[in-house]
Design brief:
The complex is a heterodimer of chains A (about 550) and B (about 270). Chain A has about 550 residues and is mostly helical. Among the domains of chain A are: about 30 residues, no CATH class; about 325 residues, Cytochrome Bc1 Complex, Chain C. Chain A is about 55% helix and about 5% strand. Chain A contains 18 helices and eight strands. In chain A, the strands form four sheets. A two-stranded antiparallel sheet of chain A has the order 1-4. In chain A, α6 runs antiparallel to α9, α12 crosses α14 and α14 runs antiparallel to α16. The longest helix of chain A has about 40 residues. Chain A is globular. Chain A starts with 7 loop residues before the first helix and ends in a 33-residue tail after the last helix. With about 270 residues, chain B is mostly helical. Chain B folds into three domains: about 45 residues; about 90 residues, Orthogonal Bundle (Cytochrome Bc1 Complex, Chain D, domain 2), CATH 1.10.760; about 90 residues, Cytochrome c-like domain (Cytochrome Bc1 Complex, Chain D, domain 2). In chain B, about 55% of the residues lie in helices and about 0% in strands. Chain B contains eleven helices and two strands. Chain B has a two-stranded antiparallel ribbon with strand order 1-2. In chain B, α7 crosses α10 and α9 packs across α10. The radius of gyration of chain B is 27 Å and the shape is flat. The termini of chain B are far apart. The chains are: A mainly alpha (about 550), B mainly alpha (about 270). Chain A: Its cofactor is heme. Chain A: One of its GO terms (cellular component) is plasma membrane. Chain A: It is found in: Cell membrane. Chain A: GO terms for molecular function: metal ion binding; oxidoreductase activity; quinol-cytochrome-c reductase activity.
Chain lengths: ~550, ~270
């Protein structure tokens, strides 16, 4: 389509820029880049756009926040705290909430955006995990994602502590307890971080630097790297008609994807603004200033730290006193819940792509993702992790559960201790069965077609339901299923055909690998090639074609 | 006669007898209770009632099965000698006593139908006569308008929120016990709870927290609970648990719906 000669003011300016930067060529190549379409591909953008809003609202908050633990007497406009001695950090947070125009809205949007940032990271990571989008060549981008997630947790923790209210102080106290529980270096680290005895006078200003400078800088750099890698490696696509590992089916970046993405930014902004306006979050004026001697019932961290709170609450009170107490105390009741679940989840996430590659021996590039049902063990492992995390998270609120549902607090703890072992195992088994069941439905769809609801009477009096062949799009998606690879030699094939396993398979690790590979990989429910032998009960005819060859018998 | 004899060994006969006995006893009890209530009401109406004597009658009818005929206490309920009028006023006016079901703790509920200002006064007078104890506070002692909210807030945070949550939303204690929410407690009930220490609550007597400080705390509790939420819906004022739920259920759900809507039209490969 021609739009005639370019008007001189535009042509002049763009020529000027192009001759100096040479961006025209780059844009020409990249603006038409194709992006695949699927709603779940936008989940990462929840996190991205929440981060943009966090930067903007956060900058506004820094104009008025004073990161100092110096004492002041409050005389602002919130009457129930007037004349109370508090830290400057808390007083300035109250000032933002009650005396700065738009301050409370900005604070609330910042906090809601923080929750949506981490929730967005989580749903995005789950999408990538369950579809196997982390596989070669995207393992490094997955690792960047794990680091982003870890940094986001620390960013949240430091931000939560800044207003210096009673609730944030409770979180800070637990953080200090965890640091103290570290063997040998704990006490020293605590004094180092807090600049002396807890709470000291330094921690707010230190957390402030970390919260507004160090971690956001790292996040920004890593998000950029994450996006560049995604751009260069191209986005994965869902299996479907005409989609292969060699192509990308979707809309061009400009204008199609840009419009969708821009609209999605507006949606994210809208939801955060809506929550910031309509739902009160972190009402610090109700918590009061932090005093180390005070603690409130129902003190909880923000949701993303809830699993650590829960593991702390579930843990029995174990500790080891070395040589009486002279050699120091090893408080396992803090050390284990603080480090073990976090370690299992983050290390597990980081290692999973590499472990899967080791087990399956799958070294191919993947650009079409898996449907979760087609790799049942991976999906089950994911659901196991979600159950483990979710139960810990739930137990972090066990006092609220006990109070709200009027059950005994002790019972919630005992039940939680059992569930944290049994729940993940059950989740694994149940998910595995569901995946196989879904695979059977797929196989039946290919084999028999789709039920039409049309009942037909055959000349010999028998009634059958007419099945129609599936929609080509659905058929293509189902037929994309490929068996999960198994390493060569694991299934009993031997290189020389003499029944002797290769050398690699003979030592214990090799045997374990072969065993895991056999269990993890392979085809569990094979697709038969439709219209096959057992058609006798289900006539596969096209819709509307009444009198085609129904199998006579 | 023959017919009854025939049915006597019917498998359901024993249940029929049991039911009959229960109906008889229940009916008899109802009749007696109704009568005595009438008597008490008549005495009050004629102005002849002596509070202690009337209180004793009320006590024997409604309280003595657990607390003993002379309030000496039984296995089911503690002695009431020395608990004072304030304890009676708190427990009965908030509906906690008489208890409906045995349990770890008596919950707040709609008071029994016979409970009114007069009957509470009479019961309280009787219990007070048994061995003294904290008296019901006067109106001025519990007047929130005379308290200092800011000071009360500091005391509230130092003494109450461990169990009652930061603005009195309540919380769980061990073994099914709980610290109740303070949303419905009247100023007088708050004061009485502090001086009598009902159920799982410790006593905050006047040497620990002075009457003036108690009034400050009442001013804070009542003031803050009536305060509007400047940031929008309060989400129960219980802290980050409900906030996290809203972030997921409202925030993430809305954004997923938006994503599905935006990508509803897909391109197909040619």
């Amino acid at each position: 389509m021609s739009v005639g000669p370019v008007p001189k003011p535009i042509a002049g300016v763009s020529n000027f820029i192009d001759e100096r930067i040479g961006a025209g060529n780059f844009l020409k190549r990249n603006l038409r880049k194709i992006f695949p379409d699927h709603w779940s591909f936008l989940l990462g953008e929840v996190a991205l756009y929440s981060f943009v809003i966090l930067l903007l609202t956060g900058t506004f908050l820094t104009f008025f926040f004073r990161p100092s633990m110096g004492d002041v007497v409050y005389n602002g406009s919130y009457q129930p705290l007037q004349g109370i001695t508090m830290s400057e950090a808390y007083a300035s947070s109250l000032h933002i909430s009650f005396d700065v125009r738009g301050g409370l809205l900005m604070r609330q949007m910042h906090h809601w955006a923080a929750l949506l940032f981490i929730a967005g990271l989580m749903v995005h990571a789950l999408r990538v995990f369950f579809t196997g989008a982390y596989r070669k060549p995207r393992e490094l981008n997955w690792l960047i994602g794990v680091v982003l997630f870890t940094l986001a947790l620390f960013e949240g923790l430091t931000g939560y502590s800044l207003p210096d209210d009673l609730l944030s102080g409770a979180g800070l106290r637990i953080t200090q307890g965890v640091i103290l529980s570290l063997p040998v270096v704990g006490t020293w680290l605590s004094f180092f971080l807090f600049g002396g005895e807890y709470p000291g006078a330094d921690v707010i200003s230190r957390f402030y630097s970390i919260h507004i400078l160090l971690i956001p800088g790292l996040l920004l750099a890593l998000i950029t790297a994450h996006l560049i890698l995604m751009w260069v490696q191209k986005h994965t696509q869902m299996p479907g008609k005409g989609r292969t590992n060699e192509n990308v089916v979707g809309g061009p970046f400009y204008p199609s994807f840009m419009a969708k993405s821009g609209a999605y930014f507006m949606f994210t902004f809208g939801v955060i603004a809506l929550l910031g306006t309509a739902a009160q979050i972190n009402p610090i004026w109700l918590f009061g200033p932090y005093t180390p001697s005070d603690i409130s019932a129902g003190s909880q961290p923000d949701f993303y730290m809830g699993f650590l709170e829960g593991s702390l609450r579930l843990m029995p009170a174990w500790e080891i006193n070395l040589f009486g107490t002279a050699g120091g105390t090893l408080p396992l009741n803090v050390l284990i819940p603080a480090l073990v679940p976090l370690g299992i989840i983050l290390t597990g996430m980081a290692l999973y792509p590499f472990v899967e590659r080791w087990v399956t021996g799958d070294n191919r590039e993947h650009h079409v993702v898996d449907r979760p049902r087609n790799n049942p063990h991976r999906t089950s492992i994911g659901m196991t992790a979600i159950t483990f995390y979710g139960l810990l998270w739930l137990m972090g609120a066990n006092d609220e559960i006990a109070a709200f549902f009027q059950v005994s607090l002790n019972v919630t703890t005992y039940v939680g201790r059992v569930l944290i072992i049994v729940g993940p195992i059950l989740a694994y088994v149940i998910t595995y069965r569901i995946c196989l069941g879904l695979q059977r439905i797929d196989a039946a769809t290919i084999d028999h077609g789709v039920e039409t609801g049309v009942i037909k009477r055959l000349p010999d009096g028998e009634y059958i339901e007419v099945h129609a062949p599936p929609d080509p799009g659905i058929e293509a998606r189902v037929r994309d299923k490929k068996p999960v690879p198994i390493i060569a030699g694991a299934d009993g094939d031997t290189p020389d055909g003499d029944g002797i396993p290769s050398e690699k398979m003979r030592h214990p690790l090799g045997r374990l690998r072969a065993k895991m590979s056999r269990a993890y990989g392979g085809e569990k429910i094979a697709l038969t090639d439709g219209h096959g032998e057992d058609q006798e009960k289900h006539a596969a005819v096209g819709p509307g074609e009444d009198d085609t060859s129904s199998p006579a018998r | 006669m023959n017919r009854i004899t025939a049915r006597r060994r019917h498998p359901l006969a024993r249940y029929a007898v049991l039911l009959l006995a229960l109906v008889l006893i229940g009916g008899f009890y109802t009749l007696v209770t109704a009568k005595s209530n009438e008597r008490a009401d008549a005495a009050i109406a004629s102005g002849k009632a002596d509070d202690v004597a009337e209180g004793k009658k009320l006590f024997e009818l409604s309280c003595s099965s657990c607390h003993g005929l002379n309030a000496e206490g039984t296995k089911q309920g503690p002695t009431l000698v020395g608990v004072g009028a304030a304890a009676v006023d708190f427990q009965v006016s908030s509906g906690r006593m008489p208890m409906a079901n045995p349990g770890p703790q008596a919950p707040r509920k709609q008071p029994a139908p016979w409970v009114n200002e007069t009957t509470i006064r009479q019961l309280a007078a009787y219990v007070q006569s048994l061995g003294g104890g904290p008296a019901v506070p006067g109106n001025e002692q519990v007047d929130a308008a005379l308290g200092d909210k800011a000071k009360g807030g500091e005391l509230f945070r130092a003494n109450c929120i461990q169990c009652h949550n930061f603005v009195g939303a309540g919380g769980a204690l061990t073994q099914g016990k709980h610290a109740p929410p303070l949303h419905e407690a009247t100023e007088r009930q708050i004061y009485e709870a502090m001086i009598t220490g009902p159920q799982a609550m410790p006593v905050f007597n006047d040497s620990i927290i002075t009457p003036q400080q108690k009034r400050d705390m009442i001013a804070y509790i009542v003031g803050v609970r009536d305060e509007p939420n400047p940031g929008g819906a309060g989400l129960g004022r219980v802290g980050p648990v409900t906030e996290g739920l809203v972030a997921w259920i409202v925030g993430i759900s809305l954004l997923i719906l938006a994503a599905i809507w935006i990508t509803a039209k897909k391109r197909q490969a040619q």
